[in-house]
Amino acid sequence: MDQKIIKEGLTYKDVLLVPQRSAIPTRKLIDVSSNLTRGIKLKIPIVSANMDTVTEYEMAIAMARMGGIGVIHRFMTIEQEAEEVSKVKRSESYRIDTPYSILPDKTLGEAREIMRRNGVSGLLVVDESGKLEGILTRRDEIYEHDEFKLVRELMTPKERLIVAYENIELQEAKKILAKHRIEKLPLVNEGGSLVGLITSKDIIKTMEFPNATKDERGRLRVVAAIGTKEDALERAQALEEAGADALVIDIAHGHSEMVINTLELLKNYNIKIPVIAGNVATPEAARDLIAAGADAIKVGVGPGSTCITRLIAGVGVPQFTAVLECAREAEKYGIPVIADGGVAFSGDIAKAIGAGASTVMLGSLLGGTDESPGITLTKKGRKYKVSRGMASLGANINRNSNKDTENSDYVAEGVEAMVPYRGSVAEILNQLVGGLKSGMSYSNAMSVPEMWKNAKFCKITDSGWAESKPHDVEVI
Ligand code: XMP
């Protein structure tokens, strides 16, 4: 069969990529870079899900460093979500535009609290008018026990500081940092006001993560989710202001007028960053959201590992078919598709890309990593983390715990589950990308567009799937 024509609904487990004659000598040569939206390119086509057990700032940082991207979930206040975005944007860049600062008359206790809250190891000291007065680094405060001591008594004053002017080139800044063996180089304007900061830590990180997903100012990229309720516009504006690179309008049934209206509202109110919309599972839905201005389409109704929509509502389209059909439609408009949910193996990523997706979104596969929110549990000697559907009862109770709402009519469409602890995001992404490259090599595809073109599938039976897994042996 040389055509990917599938009439019934198929999942990833119902199909296999058919090996093609391949001219690829080694999978090291394969380029897996792909577009999240037309303007945002990723070195690896993997996105972490906007779930409260998957993506907050630590996951988003880890994903972007590796060349993917994370979508911060929306189940927190607008201020909290904007703060999560801002932590990612500040985590590394060639240059921090608004470094954390403190007034000289504040106490050491207050300074330590700001540093702890924001995860930084130093503060610039500025006066009321923004003029640089000095710097308070770990070296200045680590041995001090008196929390009431004033910052001005502990800081390294400006007279002893090496500073640079605001428009310094990165190479020049590197030289100054190396020559003076300093960690931080504050940037000032001609009037002496603080306008930025360059740190050696950030320069080292840039070299450490060559594939990192960065914006034009060298900051890690991050996406943030919004809903369609009253606060959608206010949330979108706050997230854009905090530096989000794109937004995801994420509701369970994305083929809805609420999503279309929200897309139009955001465009009317001049939200300039790309807006990804979903979740959908049909080509008609993809077309409608693209017509309303969506910059990428998120596909997946019911495939998620913690999702029971198909059981509770009887609704969904098996994910392979949904991705195939939506991607075919979106391709006509040059709009990328994100295959969201149902990825259990690296081979599923190869299948999703082969079906036409530009990227895949992962929930529970990343939920067991060090960087996902939540603690690690040990049960019968094995380590786990909790992953829960955003429509699960627990997630709903959590969202409404500070509101006086009646939850008795709530019907859960997700479950809470334990997922095996899987170490760091970097380790799992390396495995997943290795598997994807392997799938691409079997398909004679050197790049994602070649994979779209070359991938061919065969539909398999239950026994085909049984044969695909280890069988007739006892796995050790
Ligand atoms: P995986 O399979 O990677 O899927 O864990 C992640 C995706 O699952 C979706 N999701 C849900 N779907 N009820 C649903 O119907 C839920 O409670 C739920 N929680 C998450 C979501 O699209 C996510 O990215």
Number of domains: 2
Rg of Cα set: 24 Å
Largest sheet: 8 strands, parallel, barrel
User: Which ranges are low-confidence, i.e. pLDDT below 50, for 5 or more consecutive residues?
Assistant: none
Annotated CATH topology of the largest domain? TIM Barrel
Q: Count all strands and give the number.
A: 22
Supply the helix-strand structural class. Answer: alpha/beta
What is the typical, i.e. mean, pLDDT?
92
Percent of residues in helical segments?
25-40%
Explain the overall architecture:
The protein is an alpha/beta fold and 476 residues long. The protein has 2 domains: 14-92 and 212-465, TIM Barrel; 101-199, CBS-domain. The protein has helices at 57-66, 78-91, 108-118, 138-141, 151-154, 170-180, 200-208, 232-242, 257-268, 283-291, 309-312, 319-331, 346-354, 364-367, 393-400, 425-442, 448-454, 462-468; strands at residues 15-17, 34-37, 40-42, 46-48, 69-72, 101-102, 122-126, 132-137, 156-157, 164-165, 184-188, 194-199, 223-226, 246-250, 275-280, 296-299, 337-340, 359-362, 376-379, 382-388, 416-420, 457-459. Strands 4-5-13-14-15-16-17-18 form an 8-stranded parallel β-barrel, surrounded by 7 helices. Strands 6-7-8-9 form a 4-stranded mixed β-sheet. The protein has a 3-stranded mixed β-sheet with strand order 10-11-12. A hairpin with a 5-residue loop joins strand 7 (122-126) and strand 8 (132-137). The two termini are 37 Å apart. The relative contact order is 0.16. The model has no long low-confidence stretch (mean pLDDT 92). Residues 49, 51, 252, 279, 300, 302, 304-307, 309, 340-343, 361-365, 389-392, 413-414 line the site of xanthosine-5'-monophosphate.
